[in-house]
Write a structure and sequence with these properties.
The protein is α/β, with parallel strands linked by helices. The protein has 18 helices and 14 strands. An 8-stranded mixed sheet has the order 3-4-5-2-6-7-1-8, with helices on both faces. A 6-stranded mixed sheet has the order 13-12-9-10-11-14.
């Protein structure tokens, strides 16, 4: 791994090259990468992402990395290092008023910006470089992108760029071959403020979906409000404090702490949920049976179920060593019947048993489930039991306060973790599950908005209610012993 000093040497080398050329260096910039940016620059991954808070120095780091990559291209027989790059932003205004200005600050007099062509050119005794600055947000831009043959690319504020554009861009890097040279130094580097977890960035960098053989690697900067905050010396004193004064905590979680999040108009039901604290750094499929059997109570799986036109189920297991609960799986259907959900849960039950030896699932339903009929005119409870599922009502009544307070207590006291594959659960807890927005008509804003997240979070709440996790003797049970198993066994069919 390259040290900060070595990386700085690469950057200084860029500037020394210009001194030997006819280009006059207007101002010499020395770049000292923060720790996370240094790791980002040292990576050999072909596709790299830099995620962090607003003002954390991501754009400057990408400018420095682009300069470094130019300097390590192989030399052609004529002694020059040839390369061609494209820099992407969502709109023409943003790329010219923001991205280009940052680039000019660091590149300075190394080359010349040709405004009519939106191209920055470096030509001297050792470098022959072209950098195209283009916006990407309409079909016309997509067609232009398909014509590029470049060494590599930088996507600034990548969360604003559509996934299809990223896929095209991946096909265009490594296509530029300088005279008599075939180079492997082709890279796609990207930076962004955090997005929500339904975004392609999260799916591909964090969950590794659809990455194929490409080497994707992500680098996450620490919170701007933490002792490890990066780039503070280049920000106005109290930068993040003022952000706290002017914005909601949910906004600050995203733009000050660098967390994945969801900005809703109403207050979140679970404001203490923190992506960096509550989400584990792995998905269900990332670990094997041995890992789970050594850590978790695999014979006490609790499943919360919400019926309706968007049925959902959420799966929990208990960490025997830490005494906390893990949300490890979810099923969310849209415009499907409860019968379809029952079939999906049967398939999932068999899969979890065969692959991981999870067993003895108990399904806790909305206490109102015995009043709701599906398309076959059977109650949800009887329907699930008829399929062989161990289904029970979570209680004799909905007990809204108990289920909410129970889940809130788990979250606030660090006793709930969520695996990364449970995207809807994470996004719902991050603010997707929220109260109505206050308004000047003084309408009731204590009611939760019914949306795509309400079903999955209410399923989780029914699991909390059914497993009685609002009761302290269950919540704080430390060891996985016979007594705890007996408590879990006694829950089936128990009512308030």
């Amino acid at each position: 791994m390259l040290s900060n000093k070595t990386i700085l040497g690469y950057i200084d080398n860029i500037f020394s090259l210009t001194k030997e050329s006819k280009i006059t260096l207007n101002q010499e910039r020395h770049y000292y990468p923060p720790p996370t940016v240094a790791k980002f620059m040292a990576s050999k991954a072909e596709i790299r992402g830099l995620l962090g808070a607003m003002g954390s120095g991501k754009s400057s780091g990408c400018c420095a990395e682009l300069l470094r990559l130019m300097s390590i291209q192989p030399k052609s027989p004529d002694g020059k290092r040839y390369s061609r790059w494209v820099v992407i932003r969502d709109t023409y205004t943003n790329i010219t008023k923001t991205t280009l200005k940052t680039w000019m600050y660091w590149a300075g007099g190394n080359g010349e910006y040709q405004e009519g062509k939106n191209t920055y050119v470096i030509k001297n005794s050792e470098l022959d470089v072209e950098i195209y600055f283009i916006p990407l947000n309409i079909a016309k831009d997509e067609n232009r992108l398909k014509s590029f043959e470049v060494t590599g690319a930088w996507v600034n504020e990548a969360k604003e760029i559509k996934e299809e554009f990223i896929n095209i861009l991946i096909d265009r890097i490594g296509r530029y071959n300088p005279p008599d040279i075939i180079s492997d130094n082709s890279y796609l580097i990207m930076d962004t403020n955090p997005c929500n977890i339904d975004h392609w960035w999260y799916r591909r960098f964090e969950l590794r979906e659809n990455v194929g053989e490409d080497n994707w690697e992500i680098f996450r900067q620490p919170s701007g409000r933490s002792p490890q905050a990066e780039n503070l010396k280049y920000l106005k004193k109290g930068y993040y404090n003022r952000m706290e004064e002017n914005h909601t905590e949910e906004y600050c979680k995203i733009y000050a702490d660098g967390q994945y999040g969801f900005l809703a108009k109403g207050d979140p039901v679970y404001p203490k949920f923190n992506y960096n604290t509550h989400v584990e750094d792995y998905s269900l499929e990332d670990k094997d049976k041995k890992f789970y059997s050594n850590t978790y109570s695999m014979s006490n799986v609790i499943v919360g179920c919400d019926a309706g036109l968007t049925p959902a189920s959420v799966y929990l297991m208990r960490d025997r060593l830490k005494g906390i609960w893990i949300v490890f799986d979810e099923i969310v259907l849209k415009d499907e019947s409860c019968d379809a959900m029952g079939e999906q849960m049967l398939i999932r039950e068999k899969y979890l048993l065969d692959k991981f030896e999870f067993c003895n699932e108990r399904y806790f339903l909305d206490p109102a489930g015995n009043q709701r009929k599906d398309t076959d005119a059977n109650t949800v409870l009887r329907l699930y039991r008829a399929k062989g599922l161990k289904a029970y009502l979570a209680g004799s009544s909905n007990a809204l306060a108990k289920r909410r307070e129970g889940l809130r207590h788990l979250i606030d006291n660090g006793k709930l973790k969520v695996l990364r594959n449970c995207r809807k659960t994470i996004e719902g807890l991050s603010g997707g599950y929220h109260y109505k927005e206050p308004n000047h008509y003084n309408e009731d804003n204590t009611k939760v908005v019914k949306n795509e997240y309400s079903h999955v979070i209410e399923a989780l709440e029914y699991a909390i209610l059914g497993a009685r996790l609002f009761e302290e003797h269950i919540l704080y049970h430390k060891k996985d012993n016979r007594e705890f198993d007996r408590i879990m066994q006694s829950l089936a069919g128990r009512v308030d």
